[in-house]
């Protein structure tokens, strides 16, 4: 409330501009925050969808490798003496993902079968991945985990699911070095990738998606929205100010001038009529509230004009009557004075003297 006197000193158009600007600032702040949250959530959902899609693809490749490729190769090749990488499900899935990355949409995807005791040390789980595997071990109902992590200074979105030994055929290579094919032992040695058990969570399949580019796109979308919103709102402010000035403030000026003239002790009817003729006739043609107000002022001006004319006629009539009364009064006064003179003793003596003189003249 203490700012109201300062606000009251502003013109109406400036007040509207100020209020619209305040609303704009509040709106763009809230809108920007809500849009940012919405776009981030959309980006999160999009990355999660892509990660799960690639994960389903790798599951399909792994399953196809175990059920179709490995038995077929076993029929034509002695796996004891010859190591065939295509029979390893995780390796087959990785090869397919590498080919899948030829599409620019997936070029930065990273697929890893993070394992606590891997055959290939490239798949050794780091500390973060080991915690994910521990979560899957503690909660066997947990099917998938998605979130963000930083790796080598880069923000990555990951989708992880447990890697569980569900097929006993996996134990041919990973139970003990003695039961593993010779070609497998020659390739990977006897120290890593053994001791696995059926239904054991040995690791996690993880898809990493770079999040920085996604959030850059989110920020671009936000800036684009803010730019469009600011442009539209600036246009709204300019248009509103123009409409208020042209359609409200300017039509109010002649009515304010008429009201100011009417409020004076002496009303210049001619000036009021000129304003009414020049300005109000344009306003009264409008169908809105200002048109109604203009018609009220027009009726008021007409009423004042007719009243002024009536007063003028009454004043003229009173002046005429006053002059007539004054003339009659003067005549009455003269008559009374003459009567007083004629009735006075002196006048009577004069009349008597005059008669005597006339009588003497007639006798002689």
TrEMBL record:
Question: This protein's superkingdom?
Answer: Bacteria
Which segments of the protein form a coiled coil according to its record?
308-335
- List residues traversing the bilayer: 12-35, 222-244
Q: Which UniProt keywords apply?
A: Coiled coil, Membrane, Transmembrane, Transmembrane helix
CDD domains in the record: HAMP
Listed Pfam families: Tll0287-like
Tll0287-like domain sequence ranges: 41-210
Instruction: Please verify whether the record's keywords include Transmembrane.
Output: yes
Q: What is this protein called?
A: Sensor protein
| Species of provenance | Calothrix parasitica NIES-267
């Amino acid at each position: 409330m203490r700012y109201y006197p300062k606000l009251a000193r502003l013109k109406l158009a400036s007040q509207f501009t100020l209020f619209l600007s305040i609303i704009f600032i509040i709106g763009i702040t809230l809108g920007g925050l809500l849009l940012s949250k919405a776009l981030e959530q959309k980006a999160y959902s999009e990355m999660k969808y892509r990660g799960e899609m690639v994960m389903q693809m790798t599951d399909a490749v792994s399953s196809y490798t175990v059920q179709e490729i490995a038995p077929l190769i076993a029929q034509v090749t002695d796996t004891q003496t010859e190591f065939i990488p295509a029979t390893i499900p995780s390796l087959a899935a990785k090869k397919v993902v590498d080919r899948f990355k030829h599409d620019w949409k997936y070029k930065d995807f990273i697929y890893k079968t993070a394992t606590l005791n891997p055959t290939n040390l490239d798949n050794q789980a780091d500390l973060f991945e080991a915690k994910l595997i521990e979560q899957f071990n503690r909660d066997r109902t947990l099917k998938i985990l998605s979130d963000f992590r930083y790796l080598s200074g880069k923000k990555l979105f990951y989708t992880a699911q447990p890697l569980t030994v569900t097929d006993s055929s996996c134990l041919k290579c990973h139970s003990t070095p003695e039961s593993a094919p010779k070609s497998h032992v020659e390739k990977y040695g006897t120290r890593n990738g053994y001791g696995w058990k059926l239904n054991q969570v040995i690791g996690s399949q993880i898809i990493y998606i770079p999040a920085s580019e996604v959030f850059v796109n989110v920020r671009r979308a936000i800036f684009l929205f803010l730019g469009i919103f600011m442009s539209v709102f600036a246009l709204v402010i300019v248009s509103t100010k123009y409409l208020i000035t042209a359609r409200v403030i300017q039509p109010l000026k002649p009515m304010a001038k008429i009201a100011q003239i009417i409020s004076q002790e002496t009303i210049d009817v001619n000036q009021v009529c000129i304003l009414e003729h020049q300005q109000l006739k344009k306003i009264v043609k409008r169908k809105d509230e200002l048109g109604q107000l203009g018609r009220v002022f027009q009726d008021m001006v007409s009423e004042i004009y007719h009243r002024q004319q009536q007063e003028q006629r009454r004043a003229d009539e009173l002046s005429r009557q006053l002059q007539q009364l004054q003339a009659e009064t003067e005549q009455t006064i003269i008559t009374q004075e003459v009567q007083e003179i004629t009735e006075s003793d002196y006048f009577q003596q004069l009349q008597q003297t005059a008669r005597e003189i006339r009588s003497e003249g007639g006798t002689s």
